[in-house]
Amino acid sequence: MTRPHAVHRLLEGAPLPPWVVALDRQAFGEPWGDLAGHEALWMVPEVGFALWSRAPRAGEAELVRIVVAPAARGRGLGRALLMTSQRELAADGMDCLYLEVRPSNEAAVRLYEACGWSPCGRRPRYYADGEDALLYQRLG
Q1: Please, are residues 65 and 31 in contact by the beta-carbon 8 Å criterion?
Q2: What average pLDDT does range 108-115 have in this prediction?
Q3: Which residues fall within 8 angstroms of residue 59, CB to CB, at 6 or more apart?
């Protein structure tokens, strides 16, 4: 049995576990699909994952998706996923991190700010429903 906050990185080239696909579909409607060579996924098995797009030559990475199953929220799993993946990306030389988030996703905004992220821009009417996207960065 996995400890509640045991975050693991999916091995490069490994297929996405079915629970990742199901959770992604539940959260976003359409799952991301198989990982490309520049993408990396950290997970707490069966309950959550963080998907990043990496640009190692630029020293940058972008958080594409972070999801925790509704029944497992409020236990610090999102924070564990975010902090572990940030730390490992930095160890791999990617210390300029970026993400976008809906302003209405207040829990996510609080998490990002508590984990050292700073607002750096806004994309007006970015989402299909017309909501803006807030842009965040984390350096170093």
Answers
A1: no
A2: 96
A3: 93, 94, 95, 96
**CA neighbor of 119 nearest in space, from 105, 102, 133, 134:** 134
HSE-CB at 54 with a 13 A cutoff on CA atoms is 24
CATH numbers and ranges of domains, the chain: 8-139 (3.40.630.30)
Q: Kindly report, residue by residue over 17-76, the tens digit of the pLDDT.
A: 999 999 999 999 988 888 999 999 999 999 999 999 999 999 999 999 999 999 999 999
Looking up tokens 């594409």, which residue turns up? 64
Residue showing tokens 């993946």: 85
60 catalytic residue (yes or no): no
Instruction: Indicate if 112 belongs to the active site.
Output: yes
Q: Is the pTM of this model over 0.90?
A: yes
List the catalytic residue out of 112, 113, 131, 136.
112
List the catalytic residue out of 60, 100, 126, 131: 100
